[in-house]
Specification:
Length: 525
């Protein structure tokens, strides 16, 4: 039960008129005060911690007793609530000594703090949230990972995650303090996941956080809490197939499509809003990992929406290409829909660099990023459309206008090939200096320098070559000759790709992918 009289609210002390600054105050007094505060933090030890913990327990017990004795008379327990508030403020000093967190746990204080998240007085619950946010702040725990792990484990064991999420449902943006508490609650949840990544699945399994986040991003108006909600959603979906599937079952794909559709013909107004839109697209790409969500994306006309966004050439242009690539990877129905709704007319002018982007878009999306995304999208199309009239429509794009798209492929092939060569030469120089670099690290570094994109280009050229179209083959051979290359150079790239295909999607998918690459290599022999 909240305190009715305004003057009794914890955050509403009686207003005082502003006092004029007295220039005669000796600055040495201020320096001494600051030094004493620093010393208080420096001398924080187990003895001080025990005193603070005991004081909190006493105030908590007094408040509980007063509420039980006078449940219908808030005036009787108002003072005990103010004292409890003050004790929680004092505990913030612990953020200066994270090495004491294991002692905080062993004293049982973490259990008490977690319990206060469910306090009848929202102000006390907000105090508990703010305290936990301070104790788990990334800067605080950076060099104290083990102590932070002990604290976070104890919070999870004491149902802090569930209570934090329950708190969200009783907080409102209409109250400035509560709006700030929503932000702090999300921040605390993020901090917990940062320390214990496995908590991202636990929080979605045991609470209604995904449902709350879903409702939040549905709100049309932008604010800082909607932006933070989009960030937490992206974190929860990032590396968890379970969360991706769970959100898909909640109609999450459609929710995300509706949220990004607001920006199909307009750009975000400010930096924070831009970040929110990026988070929404990150979430969309993550949720498109499971096969069943790709199906939901196609049924919800996500392919059509992304093409509309591309045609508008606004800030979300590159993000729409990325979402399409995720949707079409290993999912032929999305590739078929893309061709059926005239997606080729949108993708290939972009691939040729003929799309005039706005200044804002150029700043946000580098030309190279777009090139790489479009190459991935085209490779996905070739992987998903294997025969029939759609395949012919795709292949015909590389014949029109004197095979200009094959010229473009070879231009990109040479650029990325040169980069990979430079990286390989750098390895050779390091090894001459007796610095050992293992094969896995070499390969990963080459991927980062552009090898993956080079491999995509080689795969697309492999598809073109195996089509046995005489004009395309003649063009590829001519361009290789002009660059003083042979088909063996192309085969070597494909062979390296073949040998390093992982089994993330299962051994059967790996075998299928390797079989396809082997056919390209054989055809080039």
């Amino acid at each position: 039960m909240d305190l009715p009289p305004p003057q009794k609210r914890i955050r509403s002390s009686s207003p005082q008129p502003p006092q004029p600054f007295d220039a005669s105050i000796d600055l040495s007094l201020l320096e001494a005060l600051e030094k004493s505060q620093q010393n208080a933090i420096e001398t924080l030890d187990l003895k001080t911690l025990k005193r603070l913990a005991l004081s909190l327990e006493r105030r908590l017990n007094a408040n509980t007793a007063a509420r039980l004795k006078y449940p219908d008379n808030p005036e009787k327990f108002a003072d005990s609530e103010l004292e409890l508030h003050e004790e929680l403020q004092k505990l913030k000093i612990l953020a200066g000594a994270p090495e004491l967190y294991p002692d905080l746990v062993s004293l049982g204080t973490v259990n008490s703090i977690a319990g206060l998240l469910n306090h009848d007085n929202t102000d006390i619950a907000i105090d508990a949230v703010t305290l936990l946010q301070d104790l788990t702040d990334a800067d605080v725990i950076e060099d104290n990972e083990e102590s932070a792990q002990v604290l976070v484990d104890a919070l999870i064991e004491n149902s802090a995650v569930e209570l934090l999420v329950q708190n969200l449902s009783r907080l409102s943006d209409s109250d400035p303090d509560e709006s700030a508490a929503i932000y702090n609650t999300l921040s605390t949840i993020e901090n917990l996941i940062e320390v214990k990544p496995s908590a991202s699945e636990l929080v979605c399994e045991k609470t209604k956080l995904l449902k709350w986040l879903q409702a939040r991003i549905k709100i049309r108006e932008f604010d800082s809490n909607k932006q933070y909600a989009s960030e937490i959603l992206a974190i929860l979906l990032q590396n968890s197939a379970a969360n991706q599937k769970r959100f898909g079952q909640m109609n999450g794909v459609d929710t995300l499509l509706q949220a990004v559709a607001m920006y199909k013909s307009k750009d975000p107004k400010m930096g924070d809003e831009e970040e929110m839109v990026e988070n929404l697209f990150d979430s969309l790409c993550c949720v498109l990992m499971p096969l069943e969500n790709k199906e939901r994306f196609v049924k919800a006309e996500g392919v059509e929406l992304m093409i509309i966004i591309m045609n508008q050439k606004k800030l979300c242009y590159g993000s729409a290409i990325r979402a399409l690539d995720f949707a079409m990877t290993n999912y032929p129905p999305a590739c078929e829909r893309f061709i059926d709704v005239m997606g080729l007319k949108t993708a290939f002018p972009a691939f040729m660099g003929k799309v005039p982007l706005s200044k804002k878009n150029k700043k946000k999306q580098s030309k190279e990023e777009l090139e790489e995304r479009l190459l991935s999208l085209i490779a996905s199309l070739f992987g998903g459309i294997l025969r029939g009239s759609r395949r012919e429509r795709l292949l015909s794009k590389f014949v029109e206008n004197e095979c200009e798209k094959i010229d473009r492929l070879m231009e990109l092939y040479m650029r990325y090939s040169d980069r990979v060569k430079e990286e390989t030469e750098r390895f050779d120089e390091l090894e001459l200096d007796d610095l050992e670099i293992d094969d896995d690290e070499k390969y990963n570094r080459k991927l980062e320098s552009g090898l993956y994109t080079l491999q995509l280009i080689a795969v697309i050229l492999g598809h073109l070559w195996t089509s046995e179209h005489p004009r395309m083959r003649a063009r590829i051979e001519l361009l290789l000759k002009q660059q003083k290359l042979t088909k063996n150079d192309l085969k070597n790239i494909l062979q390296e790709y073949h040998d390093n295909i992982g089994d993330l999607d299962g051994p059967e998918e790996r075998e299928r992918a390797q079989s396809k690459i082997s056919k390209f290599i054989s055809a080039l022999s």
